[in-house]
Amino acid sequence: MINPDTTYHVMGLTRYVDDRDFPARGLHCVVFFSPLAKGKIRDLDTSAARNVPGVAFILTAKDIPGENQIGGIIQDEVLLAEDKVNFVGMPVAAVYAWTEEAARQAVGRIKIDIAEEIPILDPREAYNRNELIAPVRTFTLGDAEEAIASAAYVVKGQAESGAQEHFYLEGQVTVATPSEEGNLHLSSGTQAPTSVQRCVAKVCGLAMNRVEVDVRRLGGAFGGKEVQANTWACFAALGAQKAGVPCRMVLRRSDDMSATGKRHPYSSDFTLALDGQGKFLAFKVMYYQNAGAAADLSTSVLERTLFHATASYYVPNVHATAAACRTNITPNTAFRGFGGPQAMFVFEAAIREASRISGICAETLQRKNLIKTGDCFAYGMKAENAQAQRCWDRAYAHYDLQKRMRAIDDAQKKETCSGQVARYGRGYALMPVCFGISFTTIFLNQARAHVHVYTDGSVGVSTGAVEMGQGVNHKIRELVADSLGIAPGRVKLESTNTTRVSNTSPTAASSGSDLNGAAARMACEMIKERLFKFKADEYQCASKDFSIRQGRLYREGNACEVCWADLVNQAYCSRVQLSAEAHYATPDLYFDKSVEKGRPFAYHTYGTAYFEAEVDRLLGTYSIKKAYVVHDLGRSINPLIDLGQVEGGMVQGIGWLTMEEMRYDETGRPLTATAGTYKIPDISFASLDMKVQFLEDVYNDKAVKGSKAVGEPPFMYGIGAFFAIKMAAGYEKPFYFAPITPERLFGELREGLVV
Amino acid sequence: MKKRCGFILNNKEMELSLLQGRSVLDLLRKDLGLYGTKEGCREGECGACTVILGRTPLVTYRSMPACLMPAGQLNNTHLVTIKGLQGERPNRLQQAFINQGATQCGFCTPGFILSLTGYLLEGRTVTVQGAIDALGGNLCRCTGYGAIRRAVEETVEPLLGKVPSLQGLIELDLLPDYFATIPQRLENLRRKPQSDSPDVTLERVEKNCPLIAGGTDLYVQRGDALNKSDPRFLIPEAEPIRVEEGMIEILASATMEQLRQDPHFIDQFPGWREKLLVIASHILRHRATLGGNLVNASPIADCAVLLLALDAQIQLVSSKDSRRRFPLRAFFLGYKELDLKCDELVEFLLVTKRDEAQLWNYAKVSKRERLDIAGCNSAAVFTVNKGAFASVGLALGGVAPIPFTARRTMKWLRGKPLSKQTFLGSMEVLQEEISPIDDVRGSAEYKRRLASALMADHYLHCFSDICSYDDFVKGGAL
Ligand SMILES: Cc1cc2nc3c(=O)[nH]c(=O)nc-3n(C[C@@H](O)[C@@H](O)[C@H](O)COP(=O)(O)OP(=O)(O)OC[C@H]3O[C@@H](n4cnc5c(N)ncnc54)[C@H](O)[C@@H]3O)c2cc1C
Ligand code: FES
Ligand code: FES
């Protein structure tokens, strides 16, 4: 069945948080941000701003009734600056006015005097000055040093990847409404309702049970509304609490882009050791993560980087170290892939370097070292039911890759022989992906669901999952319908609400349908069990004789004279409980941080992508021509949704390493924090020949109905586009600097053209 | 002061009293509660706010971003939002989006639907590529566009190669029935002058009272102030480009898209339409005017660079109705400094009309090929006589404080034989006369070398039989 939400989307009927009439007796909040990256606040003058007609009040740090603290994992982030500022875009004061225009005008009249200090922008510099968010962590397997000493080839290099703006189309938003007794209701654009609830409660000085957070849907999030939504929810809550009227906080695109965190930039040093045949012997790496001015989720992101240090490959000896470095840019945050892409980029760069030095082609190195069932990851888990080689081989066969690559190789050879440089070069690259599924913070791997069956047979489902375009609600609808044996049209997914489902984990880590879908099915089984027992009593037989299919009750395979609606109505009249709540916790997960070993993932998702790119060596521009994918998602719950996740994730990944460039000047001011200067892929750039095949005959016994999570893994295919561009450029000199903007490519070409 | 404004909003006649400068986006969402139109950026960059505007005569429909559009310009028009396409069920295009999974979070979707519908309403021959190009101003962060492309292909399939009529679109279930009544209703509206006509004036600068052409520059720069203002407008003409005494005359109010689609330019400059696709986006080109592009005076302005290479003349008109005409290159005096007096307006531009197709090229390099401001751009026009350059027009953006006419290079080339040596030599001359600076679009060094590369691109495009890329590499010119 097709996701019914999409009908409302195409007709423009879907309501997002800000799509409602806001009362005239309501406040609008606009925030005044720090214009400087680092310094002490000498003076903050809000007097002129207060005099703007329509302004109700202005809040600064000292006005916060609860704690001025929004840090999650580490309590190191204030909501409003107290005596110092740590990044450009840090909130300093919040203006509340009866119109948005007045609030905006007032913000323009706030004056701040800051004793400016020199900011740190480079993570390596922060590391050298010991500006760390948390102690450095190291994962080891075997003995890397010893293996390096005896290797046939040892290659070293540096790789850099840049920040990435989420660019969700709907900006950050919360509307807070006070109710009697000073309780607050928040309609919020968050991936993590409980996190908003906790944060608002703390800042407003309320118990959590007095803050209700409701989330209908988000206009995109991609990780950018996991922790980063808290700030804006707090501002809305503070206004509503103080004034006793509704308060609306909507970030404009330019404010959103300059004040919210991004994907973490990384700078990394790697060493890869190989034997004469190209088997990987050892990998050593040091990651300098640019965490920004506060912890946010940086330590968790960094942890996932370590988990994915060896990408899709088996390396027997590993030494991977990672540092979360505190700098003076926005606190960086979750973004699809969550540190995984940064790690895989480094490893793929190491492979290209190894290929260059050893003369063994990159694809041979990749294929030879793909992870197999039973191979051990650096964190001590063994690969189970590994599909890396199958995906790879299937891609070769299905897309006739050998022939395609040979044609490009031949053209390059011909060019070299002729001694003539051609203007346009073609290149290709393969990119295997192996991505661990589960929150690496083990306790987050739990979910709850509430299922109500109404007397007319319709069903309402509440879970902790947040719908943000990934189709999780519809997947759960289909799972519930399948479980109850009724048509999906009877099932309605309610908003995500902290009073219905409490203590939710964020909808993140690709785990939304795995966890919440499993919980919903458990609840359905409980209701079914009761219905069967009720009928078994009536027929004097066993519960297990019954089943429900296509809205009818069956007894030992024979249709009974009772349809679903009658069944539930009869059960209700016999005082059978028609609601159920279930809790699911992913089994068999553990991790011991003292030795950095364990089983942090329920399973891994695999896949392989093949890319072709064309470079105009004259102008330094490029286009991606082909992306052919074989992706393993177990048994797909909804192939149309999953295809959309694969294509969408991949194009986002391509954007990250190509045109998406967050630039800061030497004072730490972002230079590309507007839609006009920060460019994401458009339809013409993405008009490539894109083909996706799902791997056949795989059943994943670790997730609901044999499926696999799909949200994040395809993002990392985009790394292949980067290396295809590199090959097409046709120069020898290794630069592993992303994003490869036309300006960078142009510069690299002029330095190192092979003639 | 508020003024009365009469227009048709979807299927309903409206008479509103409003501030002329209020953005159509705020009017729709905040004043009228039409939440199907989304706000994604207020910069013309995302297309979430796309609407279709229909104007008489004939009712010419064009898609455009509502966020950069003043409500005062709605007088006597048909404004179509996503609500205006709504029937009981999804229409054919909407159903294709559903079938293909072309909507995920859905926030961008109304904009895509309107841009594509607008394209079908333009009265041009439908092609798949044209339909995709028409979505160039709409960003989607979720889908990766694959499903959107498939939905577009599915939708336009029965229309390929045809010029769809209003009736045809209604029959194909791509428009609701009421569209058939709009031409008559617009006519009725026009006859009944119930609205105050918006101020059209020749005085350019007046305190707090800016003059808006397309508004695409002004609203990005100071949208908040304009939203509360009562500006004056340059009223667009349906046919702003005509040929007069051997000259193509282009009114300043011509939009970028009118320039791109003009048959005279298309005849005279092979590949014109395709090359100009890199300027702004489909929806934005329906708003941005030539006059605004020149007066905005960005050193990288695309139309300025094009017109400079075409050796255009500019004509100004003053409030006292006196006129001045001179070469466009003399219009640009220094960074954001123009030879334009307070009481003068740009009236039109003139380009020499030729019967034969000309050798020319236009190239632009930016982070994203389309809808991005260039690091550098350049246009060149060559005429050749007996194996030598007879005349050369060459302009570049991003290499000087103004859109730059490379006069020394042009002069140096004149009379020189067409040869690799000439080409290489001209690039040295060019290097001497440009002076790029570092900025967010690129470093000075990058732009300097890009200028040579663009020059090489001109030669490779126009004289591929004489030179190859390899010649420029080996000649050390890059
Ligand atoms: C998303 C986006 C993408 C863009 N992409 C490009 C691009 O690719 N290439 C490019 O070159 N530019 C681009 N621009 C800049 C674009 O705004 C201008 O180039 C555009 O042409 C301005 O025209 P307008 O009619 O909208 O100007 P307006 O905003 O209406 O006016 C700009 C200025 O010109 C004055 N003015 C307008 N007409 C006249 C006249 N006839 N006489 C005297 N003064 C006049 C106005 O008073 C005002 O001061 C882009 C802008 C946006 C928002
Ligand atoms: S809101 Fe983005 S183009 Fe108008
Ligand atoms: S569907 Fe989310 S931005 Fe397009």
TrEMBL record, chain A:
SMART domains: Ald_Xan_dh_C (SM01008). InterPro entries: Ald_Oxase/Xan_DH_a/b, Ald_Oxase/Xan_DH_a/b_sf, Ald_Oxase/xanthine_DH-like, AldOxase/xan_DH_MoCoBD1, AldOxase/xan_DH_MoCoBD2, AldOxase/xan_DH_Mopterin-bd_sf. The keyword Oxidoreductase applies. Keywords: Molybdenum, Oxidoreductase. Residues 11-119 form the Aldehyde oxidase/xanthine dehydrogenase a/b hammerhead domain. It comes from the Bacteria. One of its GO terms (molecular function) is iron ion binding. The keyword Transmembrane does not apply. Pfam families: Ald_Xan_dh_C, MoCoBD_1, MoCoBD_2. Its cofactor is Mo-molybdopterin cytosine dinucleotide. SUPFAM superfamilies: CO dehydrogenase molybdoprotein N-domain-like, Molybdenum cofactor-binding domain. PANTHER family: ALDEHYDE OXIDASE 1-RELATED (PTHR11908:SF132), XANTHINE DEHYDROGENASE (PTHR11908). This is Molybdopterin-dependent oxidoreductase. It comes from Desulfobacter latus.
TrEMBL record, chain B:
One of its GO terms (molecular function) is FAD binding. Keywords: FAD, Flavoprotein, Iron, Metal-binding, Oxidoreductase. The keyword Transcription does not apply. SMART domains: CO_deh_flav_C. Residues 3-85 form the 2Fe-2S ferredoxin-type domain. PROSITE patterns: 2FE2S_FER_1 (PS00197), 2FE2S_FER_2 (PS51085), FAD_PCMH (PS51387). It comes from the Bacteria. Residues 172-356 form the FAD-binding PCMH-type domain. SUPFAM superfamilies: 2Fe-2S ferredoxin-like, CO dehydrogenase flavoprotein C-terminal domain-like, CO dehydrogenase ISP C-domain like, FAD-binding/transporter-associated domain-like. Gene3D superfamilies: 3.10.20.30, 3.30.465.10, [2Fe-2S]-binding domain, CO dehydrogenase flavoprotein, C-terminal domain. InterPro entries: 2Fe-2S-bd (IPR002888), 2Fe-2S-bd_dom_sf (IPR036884), 2Fe-2S_ferredoxin-like_sf (IPR036010), 2Fe-2S_ferredoxin-type (IPR001041), 2Fe2S_fd_BS (IPR006058), Ald_Oxase/xanthine_DH-like (IPR016208), Beta-grasp_dom_sf (IPR012675), CO_DH_flav_C (IPR005107). This is FAD binding domain-containing protein. It comes from Desulfobacter latus. The lineage of its organism: Bacteria, Pseudomonadati, Thermodesulfobacteriota, Desulfobacteria, Desulfobacterales.
